Amino acid sequence: MKIAILNGPNLNLLGKREPDIYGDKTFQEYFSELQFKYTDVELFYYQSNIEGELIDKIQELGFEYDGIVLNAAAYTHTSVGIGDAVKAIETPVVEVHISNTFMREDYRHHSYISSGAKGVIVGFGLQSYDLAIQSFLAEQTTT
Ligand code: DQA
């Protein structure tokens, strides 16, 4: 099984960025833990601060991978283009957020991704990514 994790803007600063909200672990550290845990899964990780690059990557992976775990970060709340890309591809997308966006500012309550996503996992810290991977694996064993 091939699962891609795509992170949007400012998530390259995880570990340093607002650690009270996002924790003090870098994503690279966390990604290594996921690779160690899911040895049977081909995991791919990509991060960009640029909207068009994320759209390109969604298009590129979206007909090849079995699942995409997408944290579009701030673009979640602004990007019709990323939302449309998610709807355009064949690969199912699980939207994730580290923080519970519904407990935060009103502008974080709306997502342009959710209507095209298979499901949404919000507020479990970095574990949100792991839960998304588990959702793809569970699907694989039940179908
Ligand atoms: C985030 C929540 C977004 O509102 C924010 O802009 C982010 C990260 C999260 O994972 O909690 O950059 O997607």
What does this structure look like?
The chain has about 140 residues and is of the alpha/beta class. The protein has one domain: Dehydroquinase, class II (Rossmann fold). It is built from 5 helices and 5 strands; from the N terminus they run E-H-H-E-H-E-H-E-E-H. The protein has a 5-stranded parallel beta sheet with strand order 2-1-3-4-5, sandwiched between helices. Strand 3, helix 4 (about 80-90) and strand 4 (about 95) form a beta-alpha-beta unit. The protein is globular, with a radius of gyration of 14 Å. The site of 1,3,4-trihydroxy-5-OXO-cyclohexanecarboxylic acid (DQA) has 10 residues, from loops.
What labels would you give this structure?
143 residues, five-stranded parallel β-sheet, alpha/beta, Rossmann fold
Q: What is the fold named in CATH at topology level?
A: Rossmann fold
State the shape: globular
CATH superfamily: Dehydroquinase, class II
CATH architecture: 3-Layer(aba) Sandwich
Largest sheet: 5 strands, parallel
What is the helix tally?
5
Question: What's the Cα radius of gyration?
Answer: 14 Å
Structural class: alpha/beta
Beta-strand percentage?
Answer: 15-25%
Low-pLDDT sequence parts:
none
CATH class designation: Alpha Beta
Number of strands: 5
Q: Average pLDDT value?
A: 97
Number of domains: 1
Bound small-molecule species? 1,3,4-trihydroxy-5-OXO-cyclohexanecarboxylic acid
Distance between the termini: 14 Å
Which oligomeric form is depicted?
single chain
SSE order in H/E notation? EHHEHEHEEH
Percent of residues in helical segments?
A: 25-40%
Enzyme class: lyase
InterPro entries: DHquinase_II, DHquinase_II_CS, DHquinase_II_sf
Keywords: Amino-acid biosynthesis, Aromatic amino acid biosynthesis, Lyase
Organism: Marinirhabdus gelatinilytica
